[in-house]
Amino acid sequence: MKIYTKTGDKGQTSLLGGKRLPKNDIRIEAYGTVDELNSFVGVLRDNLNDIEINAVLVQVQDRLFSIGSILAAAGDTGKFKLPTIRSNGRFKSDGQSANKIMTLISFLQHKQKRDIKAVIFMRDLDSQPERRKHIEQARLEQMDRQPKLAIIIGTPDRMREAWVLNGFIPSNQDEEQILKEITTELTFNPCEESHRLRSNSFTEPDRIRNPKVVVEKLTGGKMEREQQCWEDTPLELLRKKGVHTGLTAYIDEIEERLIPIIGSAE
User: Fold this and answer.
1) Nearest-CA neighbor of 106 among 153, 54, 52, 60?
2) Regarding beta strands 118-122 and 12-14, do their DSSP bridges make them parallel or antiparallel, or are they unpaired?
3) 196-229 as b/e: b if 16+ CB within 10 A
4) What is the pLDDT of residues 207-227, one digit of tens each?
């Protein structure tokens, strides 16, 4: 018996737009897996009588269809418009994401009886202060619905590396020397004023003003050393250095919203 697959005989297949890829390419595996998941969700919907759960699954399928289409397209095809991940339109991007997460939290609380008392949203501002505003808008709406749920927001400005630098204390002479050299080049101490590191560049001459680069130099790229910056540094020092990076505000939220919950559970 012979099976003919036309242009697929050579082990390749086409993406939307005409680009050819091997059939074992990870992209083909990805959208095939998404499609399979979507099929399972459809079967699940057909066998459920719960209106609320079905409403959530409809949203899941909508997003899976969009994700599958994007994965199956060869970038900018110029022939058709790719779908976007839709929302209810009440919030901007980060607020939408927060609201979707809160929908899942509510589902786990009411349908699966999970005892969830707090949720923490972490988001790099990346020079976009409106990101925090949008998440706060979503929090306000959820507080009206779930007043007993603590919602904590942490927004490193400009990115999480700024917080690592806030907590960095040289532990040996080598680290002291590296920090001294960086401070001389910048003309300011990056651990005390990490909010002034605003570059995204990994090339000269702005490379040294990229907080990721500075953290890499000071910690040697070791995550264990980064962890020491927030685990071993005194809280009051973190609070003092983090005024302009959002760390102080995050510590205040933890103390105000989360600590009482932890204390009541002991």
Assistant:
1) 52
2) unpaired
3) bbebeeeeeeeebbbbbbbbebbbeeeeebbebb
4) 999 999 999 999 999 999 999
Domains of the chain: 6-72 (1.20.1200.10), 93-155+247-265 (no CATH), 160-241 (no CATH)
Provide CB contacts within 8 A for 143, sequence distance 6+: 149, 151
Alpha-carbon distances of 147 from 97, 100, 151, rounded to whole Å: 20, 18, 10
Task: Tell me the backbone φ, ψ of residue 262, rounded to 5 degrees.
Answer: -65, -40
Kindly report whether the global pTM for this prediction surpasses the value 0.70: yes
8 Å CB contact between 12 and 18: no
- Give me the amino acid identity at 81: K
pLDDT in tens, 148-169: 899 999 999 999 999 999 999 9
